[in-house]
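ingest -> validate -> predict -> emit
validate: passed (alphabet ok, no gaps, 141 aa)
predict: started
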Amino acid sequence: MPSLPVSQGHYRIATRSGDLIFTAGMTPRKDGVLVRKGKISSGTPVSDYRACVELAVQNALQAAQSQMAPGERISRVLNTTVYVAAEDGFEGHSKIADLASDHLFARLPEIEPGARTAVGVYSLPGNSPVEIALVVAVQSP
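emit:
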């Protein structure tokens, strides 16, 4: 099993209030190291970013699961926010976010998609190309 994401500053990777879990923004880090850096480019096929987007989603899921008791499960994904650090002129923010949604719901096939926001930004921590935050509801057995 991959290691649990580690905060890169003074915050928690996820917090819980009742049956809701809010994750911090997760970048595509493996063992604390970004697997890809730099802005997303119009000249690169969106599919080339799949692995880093999926890793960011996986980190967000792990952060959420770190707040769950044994036997609990994610019952709904209420919101997914996908921050996209892109070069000027890039217009495929929703296509990058689709990679995140596709992976999220491949991992949780019984869950219906929730709300989603794709946000273009100038830069992200560590020069990451993407950052993903989740809000999920959990259900006890």
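The chain has a mean pLDDT of 94.
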